[in-house]
Amino acid sequence: MNKFVRPVGVFVLLLVLVLWGQQRSGAFEDEFGAHPDEAAHFVSALMIRDYLAQLGSEEGIIHPKRYAEEYYAHYPKVAIGNWPPGFHLLQALWMLILPPGQASIFFLMALLTASLGLVTYLAAKPHVGRGWALAASMLLVVLRIMQEYSSLVMTEVLVALLVFSSVLAYWRFVETKGWRWGLGFGILASAAILVKGSALVLGLIPPLAVLLLRRWDLLKTPAFWLPAGVVGLLCAPWYLFTFDLATDGWAESTPSIQFFASAFFYNLKKLLETGGPVILLMTFLGLAKTCLVRKPEVAKEDRSTFFPMLGILFLSVPIFHCIVPAGMEHRHLIPTLPVFVVFAVVGMRELSERLSKEGTFFEGRRARWILGGVALAGMYLTTVNKNESFDYKKGYSGFRAVVEELYKVEDWSGPVLISSDASGEGMFVAEAALADNSRPSKKVVRATKALAD
User: Fold this and answer.
1) DSSP code of 289?
2) What distance in Å separates the CA atoms of residue 264 and residue 144, rounded to the nearest whole number?
3) 336 or 390: whose pLDDT is higher?
4) Label partner for 184 (CA 20 to 30 A): which of 190, 203, 319, 393?
5) Contact 30, 398 (CB under 8 A)
6) What are phi and psi of 206, to 5 degrees?
7) What is the Cα 225 distance to its own chain's centre?
8) At what angle do helices 102-128 and 2-25 cross, to 10 degrees?
9) How far apart are alpha carbons 159 and 87 in whole angstroms?
10) How many angstroms separate the CA atoms of 132 and 353, rounded?
11) Lowest mean pLDDT among 183-197, 242-256, 328-342, 434-448
């Protein structure tokens, strides 16, 4: 019974932590504008939801392209094509079940974040023990970057969940050579890639696994090539059709040595900011302990590839974002965070075992508590030094109050002109779409599109 009850308890605990963080951040009250892309993700999903909802109406089936164009004319933040449709479709289906709005959509984000924590716990438990796995999953959901993106309608948490699950499936394939695990990797990888293009990092996993694990025998296995066929079949049509749109927002048009060098040092700095210096040190200690130190007493065929596969993911994500010049943002490292926290607790366990000696101040479990306290203090101080609160605060901008006053006039159809930056216009458009009970009916015009930037 405990086999099922305990994971449910862990999930509930993680969900409560995430919801508490969302409530403290203001996610349920503040507008969709803490990131310039947030409103576009929400309005795109709302459009799909409204299109699906009207399919059974007396008007008959409207062509999807015509409906999208009409919707964009009223709420110009639809961005289908800039991103794949996976995240927007998930939100749309969710908002068909629950009423569209902040309460439902941020509960979905909380479920995704708690699910990522649960998968981290379940994956780590057989290798580090139940207590350390729980510590890793709890650390994951309280990291400031995770607090932030749990409180935003953005793709990163879902991508991290699918990418990490994909790597776990590929680890099982490497261990067993079973075609079912290869197929599972292909399906999960396709789902991740259809959420965001950054999940194409999964294309590095098989070749690096062969090279770094010296598993040349995998190349002779037909199932090794199966995921490439699955991903090509499911994802290639979308990316061939939208490639120009997807690359339009890149920082540079092509990879370069200058971008690689800048992105390398940027990502290293952001890893330090993610958990502070002590946790980063423990992460590298855990990585070295599990992936670099060989145990001669363990036969080669009996060595688990779990930690090396996690190390490959930890290596692949920064390398991918150093090569692909899509831009430099902290959020690009979120798919590494489950690995980051697992290696951190391995490093903490190793260090506490070395410090813990009978008859000393660090005897027994005291070393663990002291190290944990020092690590959390380091994470807190790293955040405070940036003049930011350790708890993420989203920020209220006041657009909702304006929309509510405008939309009190029921027979007024607009249009209304909004002039602001990308986030401000997005916040207003998203609030206007939610306030319109007969979407699409009232029209919003963005000054940056109709007049000038």
Assistant:
1) I
2) 21
3) 336
4) 319
5) no
6) -60, -50
7) 27
8) 130
9) 9
10) 13
11) 242-256
Secondary structure element (H or E) that encloses residue 218, with its range: none
Concatenating the DSSP letter of every residue in 295-338 gives -TTS-GGG---HHHHHHHHHHHHHHHHHHS-S---GGGGGGGHH
Nearest to 9 by CA among 160, 122, 149: 122
The residues near 202 (Cβ < 8 Å, ≥ 6 apart) are 163, 166, 167, 189, 192, 193
| Calpha distance 409→265 (Å, rounded) | 53
User: Is 78:51 a contact under the CB 8 Å cutoff?
Assistant: no
The pLDDT, as a whole number, for residue 189 is 97
The proportion of the chain whose per-residue pLDDT surpasses 90, expressed as a percent, equals: 60
For the whole model, what pTM was predicted? 0.92
Q: Nearest 5°: CA angle at 292, between 348 and 172?
A: 90
Indicate whether 404 pLDDT > 90. no
Strand partners, 417: 445
143-187 pLDDT tens trace: 999 999 999 999 999 999 999 999 999 999 999 999 999 999 999
Residue type at position 48: I
Token pair for 88 = 């927007």
CA nearest neighbour of 320 among 162, 123, 163: 163
Contacts of 383 (CB under 8 A, 6+ apart): 144, 273, 276, 389, 390
Residues 6+ apart with CB under 8 A from 88: 41, 44, 45, 48, 80
Residues 432, 413 contacting (CB under 8 angstroms): no
Separation of alpha carbons 436 and 439, rounded Å? 6
